[in-house]
Every structure is written in structure tokens, then in C-alpha cells.
Task: structure prediction
Amino acid sequence: MAQSQDGGNPFAEPGELDNPFQPPPASEPPAPASLPPPSAPSQSSRKLSPTEPKNYGSYSTQASAAAATAELLKKQEELNRKAEELDRRERELQHAALGGTATRQNNWPPLPSFCPVQPCFFQDISMEIPQEFQKTVSTMYYLWMCSTLALLLNFLACLASFCVESSNGSGFGLSLLWVLLFTPCSFVCWYRPMYKAFRSDSSFNFFIFFFIFFAQDVLFVLQAIGIPGWGFSGWVSALVVLRTNVAVAVLMLLVALFFTGIAMLGIVMLQRIHSLYRRTGASFQKAQQEFAAGVFSNPAVRTAAANAAAGAAENAFRAP
Result:
């Protein structure tokens, strides 16, 4: 019996009954092979190659890159400035080569050819002044023109005030004197030094401009105030005339407003030019050197100094 059972299933283990009505046992799937646990990357397993740059931190890298960029921009600005200066000098040489001295004839003030008085200065902002300073010089030129126009309007206002009030004769006379005096003196004393300072980067002319234009700003403020009897149609003079004639007072108020605007613009431009002056590297020592070089290069001064030295030496030899 047992043999028959074993003979029915040759692969069955001994003692196992062969039941034809029993369903075959389900075969279990083989268990998956266990994978080794992932090992954490160690710093020692990864070595930097000799050509691989070390990372010292993003902050220091960004700071060094920003510093390098700023240095490159600064050098680029200097190169642009030098290129503009070379371009300006090249234009001057071309003008001089094409027309000789005819192109450098004085052209200011622009007077007609039949006038017996000829122009006294040569002025060409686009050719003589570096491009970065042309706007500043042009603004100062317009400021001088506005101050001249204000003096003319002030003269008319004082004339109207004298017509309605005969006691204002002194103010009318002074207003005429201010027009004749301040118009040429302001151009020669502060505008031309400023023009030459930016044209040739002259510290000496910068110092002259600062000293005289500061006084000019003080005068602008006094003109806006309008002290009665000083020949200025400022706020105080206009309020005084308001009790006499309203139309003349309105004209004087307009002149006072004009004077006020000129005074404010003058103060702003003085500060702006002073900041530009500090950026150009000018100094008081440089101004002294320019003054000494200009004085000793003058033939009249050298002749006078030589004569004085010769006279002193002769007196020294004659002394017992």
C-alpha cells in the first residue's frame, strides 16, 4: 500500500499520502534578494582633482567679482575720458591746420563787422570744453545772460518807479550804473575764469571763480531783497511802491521773482562746480604752482626781476 502510494508520486516524500482530490499546493514566489543598505557618501571617498577649484564660499566669490567689475568700469570711464580729450584736441588741430589763425579769431561778443569795436574773446564750448563739462559751462553762460537781462528789467522797473515817485531818483541812477558795471565785469571776473578752468583744468582759475562768484551770489541775494535806494527792484522795494502805484509794484515784483530765481540757481551751480572741482584733483598747491609759472613766464615780470636783481647786485658791490 505504501509502495503504491510512493509509486504514484515518485517525488513525494515518504509517508505523504497521495490524495487525487486534493488541489495542488500553491507555489510560493521566491523571496527577493535583500539589497545591501545604501552607504552614506564619505568625504574621504571623493577627492578633488588637482585642476578642480576649491569652493571658499559664495559670499567671498561674489564680493571679489563685484570688486573686479567696479575696477573694470572705473578703467573704462578713464579710457572714455581720455578718448574724448584726444578727440577734442584732434579737432582743435584739424581746425588750426585747415584755417590757420583765421579759425581762432575772437568771436565774442558777436558784433557786426562794421562796428568799430571788435570781439575780445574766442569762445566755442563744443570745441574747447570737454564733453562731460559742456552742460555745466553752458548753464553758467545762460545764467550770465539771465543776470544781464534781469539788470535791464531792473533798470526799466526803477525808471517806472522814478516816473511815479520823484524821490526814487537815486535808485534809478544806481540801476543804470549796475547795468553798465555788472554786465561786463561779471563776464570777465567770474564767467571767463570758470570757462578757462574747465578748458585747461586750471586750479588757479577755479580759485578765482570761487572767490568772485561767491560775492556774486551774495549780490544776487541783495538784488532779490531789494533794499530801497540801492537801485534794486526787489521784494522790499516792490512792497514800498505798492502803496503808490500797483502797476509799477507788479513790475517790480516780477523783477524780484527773477532775481530770486537767479540767486537760487547761482547757489546750486556754485555747489555743483565745487563738487566737480574736487573730482578733478585740483588743489591749492597746484594753484600756487600755476600762478608762479604764469608770473615767471611773463616777459615783463622777468625783465623787472632781472633789473631788480642787477640793481641790488650793483648796490652791494658799491657799498664800502
